[in-house]
Specification:
This protein is α+β, with helices and mostly antiparallel strands. The protein is built from one helix and five strands. It is 20% helix and 44% strand. The longest helix is centred in the last third of the chain and has 17 residues. It starts with a strand and ends in an 8-residue tail after the last strand. The relative contact order is 0.23.
Amino acid sequence: MQTIDAIHLHRIDPARNMARFYRMSSTPSLFGDICLVREWGRIGRPGRIRIDLYETGEEAMAARDALSRVKRQRGYRDLSRNDVRE
C-alpha cells in the first residue's frame, strides 16, 4: 500500500528516563477508506499500533493534525535528521 503522508515525533527527557516516539501515517485501504495508522512506544522497542478508518482523506488529515497538535502540546517534537542514529 502507498503511504500518503507521515509524521514522526519524539519526546526525550533523560532526567525522567523518557525516550518515546509517536508515528502517524495515512494509507488507502482495500475498501476505499483511508487508514490513519498510529504507532507509539519507547524508542528502540516495538510499539503499539492503532488503525482508525476515515471515509475521506480530508477527515483523516483533520484527525492527524488534531492528534499531532495534542502530542506537541505534551512535549513531543518533530524528528530531525540529527536525531536519526544509523
